[in-house]
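WARN no homologs supplied; continuing
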Amino acid sequence: MKYEVTLEGRTRTVDVRPDGIGWFVALDEEPPVLVHGHRTDAATWTLRVNEGPRRKIGVALHKDTVFVLDGDTPARGEVVDPRAAALAHAGHAGQGRVSTAMPGAVVRVLVVEGSVVAAGQVLVVVEAMKMENEFKAPFAAKVTSVAVTAGVAVEAGTLLVVLEAIDG
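OK structure emitted
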């Protein structure tokens, strides 16, 4: 999955691809590196890049801002969430088709056909790369179709829910 991250005023593209034992991570157009790691607590990861030494990295996320502490070196960045951007675009286009931007597994479906939802209400939760991703209604709407059920695997671009805008 590709992310745009702004660090110290510079926008960078980070491409993260899962590997059976870690992730391949590429920054901008640089060659990818293999990152192995695990979460040691709610805000700390132990990571190893290629065959380098293990390092403890602190990571905290607040809305679209990420705070990173690598040793004594702090960094702050802004993340452009591709899911939010995709949902915002769908809302402006008035199409009402909510799709996943990444492969994963549907964890929860929180609406049924005929449900009336508010803008920002969570519709479906998809787990991807060990993170739960909430797909929300881009506008107040009636659910006209639910295309997935909990437990199913989905590919990038899979239609999750179809919405019809509510006038007024």
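Residues 82-165 form a domain with the OB fold (Dihydrolipoamide Acetyltransferase, E2P) fold (CATH 2.40.50.100).
OK
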